[in-house]
From TrEMBL:
It comes from the Bacteria. It comes from Paenibacillus shunpengii. This is Phage tail protein.
Length: 266
């Protein structure tokens, strides 16, 4: 506070203090103003020392930090192997030990990446990167909603069908789904596949037909023949009427109630 007759001979600096939220501006009263230095001489009480007022606002924030850690391993102890190449007295030098550790870590990472790359060369072990390339080669539309195991299986089936399709090879393909028997009908240019280990029409019949059409020669027609539980089978195996009445007719005909052995009931 400057009273009448106060004389100063230096620059006036005014500090102002105020509290404010982020939204509302602060009002500064006279009690919050303090003159530190005054430049001009003969400053009277009526003369106001006013300078630019700077407002400072405080805000709060939540900072989220994420990091990524990579872990690699190989069957080799690369650090020990590198140490064996050096004279023993180098073990007393911390700088040398730190250099070996850094280089061994990077070498371990390199070997692990090379091993992982080899896995991409085979559909049985390929990850999403490798299996996508196999799907493109086989003409399969990539569907990442399927599991990786399902995508691998589809590629393996498609690759297995490339080349001459013999009866054993075709039987192996359809048996990837269910236990089936295949009957060739040369005079009709037709192949019939009877499904034994699944009653009724399978839910994945469209997928089965797609796999078969991809490998079967174009001049042959193919038919999947479903099987149903017959009343004769029920009688042969001694199923009582009370037991049969637990199911509707449709449910009973689709249930496989007895052990399956190679295309026949037993």
């Amino acid at each position: 506070m400057i009273s009448s007759g106060t004389v100063a001979d230096s620059t006036a600096i005014k500090r102002q203090f105020a509290k404010s939220s982020v939204i509302t501006a602060a009002s500064i009263s006279a009690k919050q103003t303090r003159v530190v230095r005054i430049a001009s001489a003969n400053t009277s009480a009526s003369k106001a020392a006013v300078l630019d007022v700077k407002k400072y606002r405080t805000i709060s924030a939540k900072i989220t930090v994420s990091t990524r850690m990579e872990a690699y391993r190989t069957d080799r102890d690369i650090r020990a192997e590198m140490t064996d190449y050096l004279p023993r007295y180098y073990g007393d030098f911390p700088v040398v030990s730190a250099m070996i550790q850094a280089e061994a870590s990077e070498a371990t990472r390199l070997h692990a990446l090379v091993e992982a790359l080899v896995f991409e060369f085979y559909p049985e072990t390929a990850t999403d990167i490798g299996i996508t390339r196999f799907e493109a080669e086989c003409g399969i539309v990539t569907d990442r909603t399927k599991s990786l195991e399902a995508r691998r299986s589809e590629v393996i089936k498609r690759r297995r069908g490339i080349g001459t399709v013999t009866l054993p090879k075709f039987t192996g393909i359809v048996n990837e789904f269910y236990d089936c028997t295949v009957e060739e009908k040369p005079n009709e240019f037709r192949v019939a596949t009877t499904i034994w280990s699944k009653r009724g029409v399978p839910e994945n019949i469209a997928e089965m037909e797609r796999e078969v059409n991809a490998v079967l020669p174009a001049h042959l027609e193919h038919e999947f023949v479903p099987t149903w539980l017959t009343w004769g089978e029920i009688e042969d195996y001694g199923l009582t009427g009370e037991e049969a009445e637990q199911y509707t007719g449709d449910e009973l005909s689709k249930r496989f109630l007895f052990p399956y052995l190679g295309g026949r009931l037993s």
